[in-house]
Amino acid sequence: MAPSRTATPLPAANTQIHELSAEQLASYNENGYLIIPNALSSSTTSALLQETKTMLSSFPISSHPMTKFSTGGDSNNSADHVGDTYFLTSGDKIRFFFEEAAFSPTTNSLLKPKHLAINKIGHYLHELNPLFRDATLTPFHADVARKMGFKDPRVLQSMVICKQPEIGGRVPPHQDSTFLYTNPPSAVGFWIALEDATKENGCLSFAKGSHRRRAVEKRFVRKKDGSGTEFVDVEGARFPEGLDVEEEAPEEEVYELGEVKAGSLILIHGNLLHKSEKNLSGKSRFIYTFHMIEGEHEYDERNWLQPPEKGFSRLCQ
Questions:
Q1: Which residue of 42, 145, 239, 242 pairs with 153 in a disulfide if CB–CB is 3.0 to 4.6 A?
Q2: Backbone phi and psi for residue 210, each to the nearest 5 degrees, phi listed first
Q3: Which residues fall within 8 angstroms of residue 18, CB to CB, at 6 or more apart?
């Protein structure tokens, strides 16, 4: 149903320090997401946006395999998802993935300048880029993790998602724990707007409360023969520990728009259904997102994203 409407570290003063209130935590637990305006200062937000633009303009295209990132269309079809070596070995690197619509459907040639053709940058910004590291491993984010009950919160991936003007692709309804599965599920997304996110440029929409009624039924894994990726049935737990699960779910979920200003943070439960529409406007929708999981839960070798040699990053430093 359609929704209703190489850098130097940031100075410490540029990252705003907050604490998650009891009211905010209760809202997150009830709805499966929480919007926190002004979570990042304007100076931090501007610095991250400028750093993103610098990376987009400076990465070498001559040696790039031109890997495209697909959002999977309208179904969990593994044929629609990326699974080449460039993607599967990006867990400890900063790599650039092209938007499908940036290429000619007949000649496969690039139709846009490279800085306007990238879908996302990932997946190790939180360790390899000082600005993004400083904006990720913060006391506030550690406070969020503790109040959510995490014992050993680990950041396992980070991305800039560009949602380019005119070609930014639709992302169908999905659950983050499908792609970052622990047993039991524990993923939480931290989604930070670097620019205003509106209905016109493809803001997020949320099926409020769906985290309590929608089990994680599939997971995105590496094929056993090493030939790529696929979706398989979840054999372990399908809901997080201690969650008050609803027995009945509506036939069709209702989605609510999450329009936000730059600097806003959205916390997203791993079981929550959420989506975004195509960006057909002339304005980009750059965001920075990272995900955490419970380090004490099982994270197996089938997951598409495998930990670097030193393990996933500790959020509580």
A1: 145
A2: -70, -15
A3: 36, 39, 140, 143
User: Over the range 259-279, which residues count as b (16 or more CB within 10 Å of their CB) and which as e?
Assistant: bbebbbbbbbbbbbbbbbbbb
Summarised one tens digit per residue, pLDDT across range 179-202 is 999 999 999 999 999 999 999 999
Rg (CA), the chain: 18
**pLDDT by residue (tens digit) across 66-92?**
998 876 654 444 444 577 899 999 999
Which residue bears the tokens 């999905």? 174
The residue ranges of DSSP E strands in 110-161, in sequence order, are 118-123, 153-161
Strands 94-99 and 229-233: unpaired
Supply 293's token pair. 């999981």
**How far apart are alpha carbons 225 and 170 in whole angstroms?**
30
| Nearest partner of 209 among 170, 255, 242, judged by Cα | 255
Q: Sign of dihedral through CA atoms 247, 253, 254, 256?
A: positive
Q: Compute the residue count for the chain.
A: 317
- Judge whether 163 and 201 are in contact, CB under 8 Å: yes
Beta-strand pair 204-206/33-36: unpaired
And the tokens for 203?
């803001």
Q: Would you say 268 and 179 are in contact if contact means Cβ atoms under 8 Å apart?
A: no
Per-residue pLDDT of 220-279, as tens digits, reads 999 999 889 999 999 999 999 999 999 888 989 999 999 999 999 999 999 999 999 999
User: Two tokens at 313?
Assistant: 């990053």
Quickly list H helices, the chain: 22-31, 42-58, 85-88, 125-128, 130-136, 139-147, 176-179
Among the listed residues 187, 220, 197, the one whose alpha carbon sits nearest the alpha carbon of residue 88: 220
- Closest by Cα among 48, 106, 126, 113 to 291: 126
Helix (H, G, I), strand (E, B) or coil at 210: helix
Q: Phi first, then psi: what are they for 65, rounded to 5°? A: -75, 0
The per-residue pLDDT for range 14-51, each reduced to its tens digit, is 445 579 999 999 999 999 999 999 999 999 999 999 99
Phi, psi of 240 (to 5 degrees): -65, 160
DSSP letter (8 states) at residue 32 = S
